[in-house]
Every structure is written in structure tokens, then in C-alpha cells.
Write a structure and sequence with these properties.
By secondary structure, the chain is an alpha+beta fold. Helix content is 19%, strand content 32%. The relative contact order is 0.12.
Length: 705
């Protein structure tokens, strides 16, 4: 049975061909589908109703086509959704974290889509509901809360929300005595605010018309946004700005950076009118960030060639570079990912050979110890503490078989206190599953880690289908953590696998460096090597592997489809960054200038142009057979614009030589992150998994085994 035979033979939407030519570096390209890019895309992000009618008509035709091709999976989708929802404790509540006289936490109500924020007296007592996300989302097709931050005096809350999916966040201010919002409404922000020490106002970054956080403002409570004072402005469109606060509420940190260079400025939190103070002027390739430690700043940096980073310190009253002193030296091959400081301890999380561990150092004695676990593959999260003068920090642990556990950890006594274990209401027995860490050999001899999960009774004779996930960009590491969704595939006999490919920092900074710019091809060939290893070890076979990735991982999907279409039985590409060359040439798009350090600058460099053109998925679609492909996007996505997959799908259908379908699904009410509610997002996952099951011939199964 061919793959195409499991789908009905229906006519697909055919995009009109309107040739558009572009010449760069003496090279002329013709793009037949450039018209799918709305000329008023900035307006569309804020108001999707202004989308060009011809483009809307085409996207709606695509949605009708995908619905028809997946019609026979509706019952399966409902079953998958019910299974995944059944693994979620609907009235989930976090363990509150202590801060001053209160403890703050989040919870959900049964049937609720959005989180609620509450607080109790510090040592327990009656909950006060501060913000109900479900209530705020009423009547909105899309709604996502960004963050909340209570003022140092605990009397007000600044909170952010996006109601279009475009990530232009609005901020509100809530009085925590009356629980009523003040008139201090702020629009077009990146979603958060940082209070001054006196709780009289807060700092926030505002997005420009191209969706770039380039200006820092201070808002005083009781005034309007037009009265807000501009504190700092970044004029280079290749650098984004972010603002954060210190744990002692003494400083406001202004972080400016791209993917390889950073610069920080500080403002005393008790003097919001003060001019920002530069810590160290930006230098290409040098990154650093600050954590307050009383009378010193601890600085995580790669300066002096420390590719895997080291920690230095400097006096808070003299934080300039000449006063930096090494505290934790670099350990090549073990990358330091983040750090924080407390009165008596310095804590950092590091990763070696793909596995994380937390290191605690006594600031007085210099004694160190590690928090680590023994499974072959696992995930650690360091939540730390909201308070500086504490011996207790919080961390989380999970593996692909073990639900998430949260611990309070005494840094002095080394005692772990289990606070909660993720409840799986429908039941979960870790002993029914196996998790392993494999090593696939890439073409150049590098060993690529692959984390896998499967049911203990799954036959390992090559007959099992497999979902192989990958990302491989920006130094992002995909953790081998517990995933309630993938169990619906694993329980049906799937191998679930994560390929820890180059472009991430799984094996240190060099692992990232060897998967970017002129070495980007390693990301794709590593993923293909992972698929080949799974087949060679008889976990699966090539025609039963469904490749899966999103965003830059969606670019990975497009690249491997061109490079090795026979290695995969199907491909799922979520919000796929597939029109790389055109996007990185377009300086008006939100992320383009800040992306040049990651991909290269094809505007000024012919070498970078040719490198990107050599692997860009859209540019390299050819007349060959492709496996069934599912592409998904959100209309108001500012990160990977909807027209990238729209063009890719149109070109695939034009050139490919097989009858396998290319399915394109567009969420007309969402952006990059997909549906905003916790359950509505599961509906999207169920759709993807139904596609995987359909392609591998399991669409008729009603329940997991």
C-alpha cells in the first residue's frame, strides 16, 4: 500500500504563479509565489481582518482541503485528545513560592484553559485569587497571558496579555487590595514589566512597528502611556532589548543582544530617573549577563575565549570590565547555562554530554557539590528562589518515563524535600516504559545523542513506527523530559525519539558552533544520521519514521525533505522557517537583522548568500518524490510568517513527482505558539498525531493498547 493511498484523491488548492524576480550579488532568482506575502503584514498582525481577500481565499481553500483529507481521523483525534487530556490534572495547582509576607502560585480550574494567579499568607492560609486567565479570555478567539510581577510592597500586579497571537502584548496594572485594574493600560510591549524599588512605577520595553523591542520606558502609576519617560533606546535593529530586576530589588538590568553579542546597562531600582550605567561595551562574539550577589555582581560570560562560559565577579559600585575577577573557570565540554546568587551560595546549571546538573558553591568556603541523577536521559529545571537571603532553592526533575517532580533543596544541609509529583489522573506506570540514550555516528564521525522512549513490550525488530523530533538551532537543547502527549503514540507501539543534533548546545558550545552559518549542513545530516541509526539498530524502518520539528526545527524538516526524502515515511513541519533566504534578505521583517549572526548576512555577503541558498528548503524544492508532508502555521505569527509555509507548499505541489499529499493547516486566530489554551493546544497535537498514525497505517485504531 502506497502512502498516498491512505488519503483520498482530492484536488488540492493551486496557488497562482506570479513571477517576481530578485537579483543579489549578480544572482537572479524568480519567485512564483511571492504574492502570498501580504504587503500590509504589519497591519495584519494587529488586525487579521485586513488581510488581502485573494490571500485569505487561498488560505481558506487550504484549510478546507486539509479538513477533507483528514476527515476520517476525526474520531481518532477525539480519542487522542481525550487520552492526553486525561493525563492532565484539570485543577492543577503549583506549590507557591515564598516572597516576603506572601506565597505566590498558579492554578487551573476544572475545564479551564488559562492559568489563574493566587497568593496565600507566607506559611499557608486562605488563597486570594489575583488574576483569573479564563475570565480575562472570555469572548476572545485567542488569548495568552505573558507574565505577572507583583510590586515590592505587594500592593500591585503588572500583568501582560496578547489577544491576537501577534505577540504585541498589552500590560495592565491590578490593585491587589481591590483586585480592580487601574487605568494604567500600556500597549505594544514585549509582555513584562519590572517594578522600581518604591513600587511607584515600572520599566517595560516597547515594540516598534516591525515588532522589535528597541525602547525602554518608565511608567509611573496614575499616569498615561503618552507620559512615560524614555529611558534607553537601541538604534541598531540587529539588537533586541530586554529588562529584568535583581532578587534584592536593588537594580534594574537592561540586556541588549543578538545571538552572539550582548551588552548590559544597570539602573538603581530606587532611582528610576537615573541615567543607565554601561557595564561593558558590546564586542562582537562576547556575551555576558549579571546576577546580583549583595556587594558584587556575578557575571556569566564567554569572554577571553571561554566558549563554554565561566563566571566572574565585580563590585556593584565598579562593575566595569577592568574589575572582573574569575570565580568559576571554564571547563571545556561542560557548558554553564545559567547562574544565580544568594547570600551564602552561588548556584549554576551546567550541561555535559547532553545531561544537566546543578552545582552549588558555598560563597564563604568555596566548597562545591552537584545535584544530579542517574537515569540515562533526564531533564533538570532550576527555579531557584524569589528571595535572596535563603538556604532553600527549588528545582524540578523528570525523564521520559518519570513524571515531573518538584523539590525544595537546602543548599547547606543538602536535604531534598519532594514537594509534588506530577499527577497523571488516567494512570502512569514508569515500569511499563523504557528510556535510553543512543549515539548515532554522523558522516564526519561525530556522535549524535538520541533519546528514545518506547513501551516495554514494543517489538524491536524494525517494525515499530517512530516519531523523530529535532530542532538544532540557536543553541537550544531539547530536554529528555516527561511528555504526556507522546505517550498516546508510544502506547500504540511507536518509538518516540529526540535527536540532539548540532546547532544545539547539548555537547557544549562547539556543538552549537558546528551547526550554524557555514556549518549548518551538519544540523540536517545529523538528523538523517539519527534516523539511519534507529533503522540500523532495528528500532524502526525508514518508511515508518515520521520526522517532526517546528520553527527552526521546521526548517530542518524542509531541509531533510530535500536531502533525504526516502529516509522518512512522513514529515510534520510546524510553523516552519522554510523560506530562509528571502526572509534573511528582508531587513523589514521583525527578526531579520538580529538573525544575521545565526545564519549569516546575505545582504552584504555573497558567501553567506550562497551558503543559505544551498540549504534553504524553499529554494531547493526539486522534481523528486517526497513523503506525505503536513505543514502548519498561524496567520498572525511574527516569528515565522504565514507566507513561508504557504509558498513552500505551493512549490512542493508544483515540482514533486509523486502522489503523496502536502497538507497545509492554518490557524486563522493564532500566531507562532499555536492555540493559546492548554486544552486547545492539545487538539493541535492530536491532529498531528492522527496524521502520523494515518501515514503509518494505524488510523483505524480507536484506543491505545
Amino acid at each position: 500500500m502506497t502512502k498516498s493511498s491512505v488519503f483520498p484523491d482530492l484536488p488540492y488548492p493551486v496557488a497562482a504563479k506570479k513571477p517576481d524576480t530578485d537579483t543579489r550579488h549578480g544572482i537572479t532568482r524568480t519567485d512564483n509565489y511571492a504574492w502570498l506575502r501580504a504587503p500590509n503584514w504589519q497591519e495584519v498582525f494587529k488586525d487579521p481582518s485586513v488581510l488581502d481577500p485573494d490571500i485569505r481565499k487561498h488560505l481558506e481553500a487550504e484549510n478546507a482541503y486539509q479538513a477533507a483529507l483528514m476527515e476520517d481521523t476525526k474520531a481518532l483525534q477525539e480519542t487522542l485528545f481525550a487520552e492526553m487530556k486525561g493525563r492532565i490534572k484539570e485543577d492543577e495547582s503549583s506549590v507557591p513560592y515564598k516572597d516576603g509576607p506572601y506565597a505566590y502560585g498558579t492554578s487551573f480550574k476544572t475545564g479551564g484553559e488559562q492559568p489563574r494567579f493566587f497568593r496565600t499568607p507566607r506559611d499557608g492560609g486562605t488563597e486570594t485569587m489575583l488574576l483569573d486567565g479564563d475570565l480575562e479570555a472570555q469572548g476572545k478567539a485567542y488569548f495568552r497571558l505573558s507574565s505577572t510581577d507583583h510590586s515590592p510592597d505587594h500592593k500591585r500586579l503588572v500583568w501582560g496579555f496578547d489577544d491576537k497571537g501577534s505577540e504585541f502584548y498589552s500590560l495592565g496594572v491590578r490593585d491587589l487590595d481591590t483586585l480592580a485594574d487601574l487605568d494604567d493600560s500600556i500597549v505594544d510591549t514585549n509582555g513584562g514589566g519590572v517594578w522600581d524599588a518604591a513600587s511607584e512605577g515600572f520599566f517595560y520595553t516597547r515594540l516598534d512597528e516591525n515588532h522589535r523591542p528597541s525602547k525602554l520606558y518608565y511608567h509611573r502609576i496614575g499616569t498615561t502611556q503618552k507620559d512615560d519617560r524614555l529611558i534607553h533606546e537601541e538604534e541598531d535593529p540587529g539588537f533586541f532589548m530586554n529588562v529584568s530586576g535583581s532578587s534584592l530589588d536593588d537594580f534594574v538590568f537592561i540586556a541588549i543582544g543578538d545571538h552572539e553579542t550582548s551588552e548590559e546597562w544597570i539602573i538603581p531600582a530606587n532611582d528610576p530617573t537615573a541615567e543607565p550605567r554601561l557595564v561593558r561595551k558590546r564586542e562582537t562574539g562576547v556575551e555576558y549577563n549579571l546576577s546580583e550577589g549583595g556587594d558584587v555582581f556575578f557575571i556569566l560570560t564567554n569572554i577571553d575565549g571561554a566558549k563554554d562560559f565561566k563566571i566572574m565577579s565585580a563590585p556593584v559600585n565598579a562593575p566595569e570590565r577592568e574589575n572582573w575577577t574569575e570565580v568559576v573557570p571554564e571547563k571545556p565540554g561542560t557548558i554553564i547555562l545559567g547562574h544565580t546568587a544568594y547570600r551564602d551560595f552561588l548556584v549554576w546549571i551546567e550541561r555535559s554530554q547532553g545531561l544537566p546538573r546543578i552545582i552549588v558553591r558555598n560563597r564563604k568556603t568555596g566548597e562545591e557539590h552537584a545535584i544530579a541523577f542517574d537515569e540515562e536521559a533526564y531533564s533538570l529545571g532550576l527555579q531557584g528562589s524569589a528571595e535572596y537571603d535563603t538556604e532553600i532553592i527549588r528545582f524540578s526533575y523528570s525523564s521520559m518515563t518519570t513524571p515531573t517532580q518538584e523539590f525544595d533543596y537546602n543548599m547547606r544541609t543538602r536535604e531534598r524535600t519532594l514537594l509534588k509529583t506530577q499527577d497523571v489522573p488516567s494512570g502512569h506506570n514508569p515500569e511499563d516504559y523504557v528510556t535510553r540514550r543512543l549515539l548515532a555516528t554522523a558522516g564526519d564521525g561525530e556522535l549524535v545523542p538520541v533519546s528514545i522512549l518506547y513501551a516495554r513490550d514494543t517489538p524491536l525488530d524494525g517494525s515499530a513506527p517512530c516519531l523523530l523530533y529535532g530542532y538544532g538551532s540557536y543553541g537550544m537543547t531539547i530536554p529528555a523530559s516527561f511528555n504526556i502527549s507522546c505517550l498516546s503514540l508510544v502506547d500504540r507501539g511507536f518509538i518516540y525519539a529526540i535527536a540532539h543534533i548540532r546547532g544545539g548546545k547539548d555537547k557544549g558550545f562547539a556543538w552549537y558552533e558546528n551547526g550554524k552559518r557555514d556549518k549548518k549542513i551538519n544540523t540536517f545530516t545529523d538528523f538523517i544520521a539519527a534516523a539511519e541509526h534507529l533503522v540500523a539498530e532495528k528500532f524502526t524502518s525508514h518508511d515508518r519514521i515520521i520526522a517532526h520539528g517546528g520553527s527552526a526545527g521546521g526548517m530542518l524538516m524542509g531541509a531533510i525533505a530535500n536531502l533525504a526524502p526516502k529516509a522518512f515515511g512522513g514529515i510534520i513541519a510546524e510553523v516552519p522557517f522554510v523560506d530562509v533566504l528571502n526572509t534573511i534578505l528582508d531587513e523589514s521583517l521583525p527578526l531579520t537583522p538580529v538573525e544575521w549572526p545565526e545564519w549569516g548576512n546575505p545582504v552584504t555577503s555573497e558567501a553567506d548568500y550562497r551558503t543559505i541558498a544551498s540549504y534553504c528548503p524553499y529554494s531547493n524544492v526539486s522534481a523528486q518524490a517526497y513523503p506525505p508532508i503536513l505543514a502548519e502555521t498561524g496567520l498572525s505569527d511574527p516569528r515565522v510568517t504565514y507566507w513561508e509555509p504557504a509558498k513552500w507548499v505551493a512549490k512542493l505541489r508544483e515540482l514533486k513527482t509523486d502522489k503523496n499529499p502536502v497538507i497545509f493547516r492554518i490557524n486563522m486566530d493564532a500566531g507562532h505558539a499555536g492555540a493559546s489554551g492548554r486544552f486547545s493546544r492539545l487538539e493541535e497535537v492530536a491532529y498531528n498525531y492522527a496524521f502520523a498514525l494515518k501515514v503509518t497505517g494505524k488510523v483505524t485504531e480507536k484506543t491505545a493498547t
